Amino acid sequence: MIEHSGDSRLAPLRLDPLLHEPARLSILAALTPAEYIAFSALQRLIGVSKSALSKHISALADAGVVVITSSPADKRTRRIALTEFGRESFDTYLHRLEEIVRSARGGSA
């Protein structure tokens, strides 16, 4: 997490460490335009092992960012979707990241 003690002007530079992890950023970016993505398809998109993806999905689910459901057609197929809270959290994360980029460029976008 990016922090600077005592300076309230730098508060927007704080990024959520749960979302900032590279594989989780990729998961969120893949899920954003979709209603849901099957676990196997998400694994191919992200390019991580099943166990690594499962750990990241579990962490995001425990935080209420994603929800895991079974496919009605095949109960063995897990589907991953962003929750409303997850969409809002990712949007907030992206806005903060944009602020950091603007700040690094001297205030110009």
Automatic annotation (TrEMBL):
Q: Name one GO molecular function term.
A: DNA-binding transcription factor activity
Residue ranges constituting the HTH marR-type domain according to the UniProt record: 1-109
Q: Which InterPro entries match?
A: ArsR-like_HTH, HTH_MarR-typ, WH-like_DNA-bd_sf, WH_DNA-bd_dom, WH_DNA-bd_sf
* Pfam families xrefs: HTH_34
Among Gene3D superfamilies, the record links this protein to:
Winged helix-like DNA-binding domain superfamily/Winged helix DNA-binding domain
Domain of life according to the entry? Bacteria
Protein name, UniProt field: Transcriptional regulator
